[in-house]
Structures are given as structure tokens and as C-alpha cells.
């Protein structure tokens, strides 16, 4: 299990590196989009290349950051249901869901996209729009996104299995959040009375011999 956990942590590092890098594309998309709007309104000029670049960058953000979103546990959950379940039940749902849904779906998309991207690369496919961009890099982003998602799904499966079957601490953001909530509840709980002698209020020294205890 320790070897599998090392693989999972390696995948997490790659996913986080790609995700943080891609997050900067949000700023680029905003600048390109604003530039396209200003040039079109002010100078009455438009460019298919710049418009397509805007779409390609948005697609790259969505696809390449999906695995990082999964790692950070930021995908949408039905909280009203999830929060009512125990931590172990949620772990089992994640474990089975990764095996039955996520990994098969990502593997199917990789299998379908591989020849699609390879054909586009071989013919050096360009946009049919005048002045448009080359298309195969945008299609390759789809393939890369599902490869990353498959690998991160494998990492999440390993980590969830380590928690369920090997007693490993939960290192995922979901586990850290659960531990923080448990710690907060323990802090807010009223102090339990401790055993032993309770000193009278206002006493300044040790109990004198024969002094009645309260």
C-alpha cells in the first residue's frame, strides 16, 4: 500500500502543477476577450484567429483543470444528502463511484479521442473560418484533459482505498475538512467534570487535615 500511496502522491503533484499553471490562463482569457470587444466596438475590426484563441483558452482551462478540481474536492456535490451521511459512507460512495463511473468514463473518452486527435494532427487540420487557427492542438487538449482526469481518479481511488482498508489517515481536502469539523465540535463541547477532590471556592492553600471536603 505504501508504494501505491507514493504513486498517488506523485499523480497529485503533477495534477496540482498543471492546475496551478492553467489557472493563469483565466487572466489571459479575460485580456483577450476584453481586447476583442474593445477592438470590435472602437475600430469595427474583428479577427477569427483572436476569437478562436479565446475559445481555445477557455476549453483548455475547463479540460486541464478538471483533474485539479477533483483533487481539491471542488466538484459539485448534493450537499443536503452528502452532509447527512457518515464519513465512512461518503468514503464508500467515492470508492465505488470512481470504479464504476469515473474511471470507465475517462478511459472510454481516451479511447474515442485518441484516433480523433491523431487524424487531425496527421492532416494538419485548420479552422474552416477565414484566418482561423490550427485545430489539432485544441482537440489534443480534450485528450490531455481526460488523461489527467483518469490519472487523478486513480489517485483518488488509491487514497480512498487506503483509508477504508489499510487505516491510513485521510489526506484529501474532504478528510481535512471533516477532521477540522470534528476538532471544532470537540472544542465547543462542555467540559466534563474531572475526578478527584474539588477545591472550595476562594481556598488559597492545601486542604487542612480534617477539613471537610465538598
TrEMBL record:
GO CC annotations, alphabetized: plasma membrane
One Pfam family matching this protein: DctQ
Ranges for domain Tripartite ATP-independent periplasmic transporters DctQ component: 30-159
Transmembrane segments: 21-43, 55-71, 92-114, 134-151
Membrane protein topology class: Multi-pass membrane protein
Protein name: TRAP transporter small permease protein
Cellular location(s): Cell inner membrane
Superkingdom, natural source: Bacteria
GO molecular function: transmembrane transporter activity
Region (Disordered): 172-214
Family: Belongs to the TRAP transporter small permease family.
Amino acid at each position: 500500500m505504501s508504494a501505491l500511496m507514493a504513486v498517488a502522491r506523485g499523480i497529485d503533484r503533477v495534477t496540482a502543477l498543471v492546475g496551478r499553471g492553467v489557472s493563469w490562463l483565466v487572466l489571459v482569457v479575460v485580456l483577450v476577450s476584453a481586447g476583442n470587444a474593445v477592438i470590435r466596438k472602437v475600430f469595427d475590426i474583428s479577427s477569427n484567429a483572436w476569437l478562436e484563441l479565446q475559445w481555445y483558452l477557455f476549453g483548455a482551462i475547463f479540460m486541464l483543470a478538471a483533474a485539479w478540481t477533483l483533487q481539491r474536492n471542488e466538484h459539485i456535490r448534493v450537499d443536503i444528502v452528502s452532509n447527512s451521511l457518515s464519513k465512512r459512507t461518503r468514503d464508500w460512495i467515492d470508492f465505488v463511484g470512481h470504479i464504476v463511473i469515473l474511471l470507465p468514463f475517462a478511459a472510454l473518452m481516451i479511447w474515442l479521442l485518441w484516433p480523433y486527435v491523431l487524424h487531425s494532427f496527421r492532416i494538419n487540420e485548420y479552422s474552416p473560418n477565414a484566418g482561423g487557427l490550427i485545430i489539432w492542438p485544441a482537440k489534443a487538449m480534450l485528450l490531455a484533459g481526460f488523461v489527467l482526469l483518469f490519472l487523478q481518479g486513480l489517485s483518488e481511488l488509491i487514497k480512498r482505498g487506503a483509508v477504508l482498508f489499510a487505516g491510513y489517515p485521510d489526506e484529501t481536502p474532504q478528510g481535512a475538512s471533516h477532521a477540522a469539523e470534528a476538532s471544532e465540535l470537540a472544542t465547543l463541547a462542555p467540559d466534563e467534570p474531572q475526578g478527584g477532590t474539588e477545591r472550595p471556592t476562594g481556598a488559597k492553600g492545601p486542604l487542612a487535615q480534617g477539613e471537610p471536603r465538598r
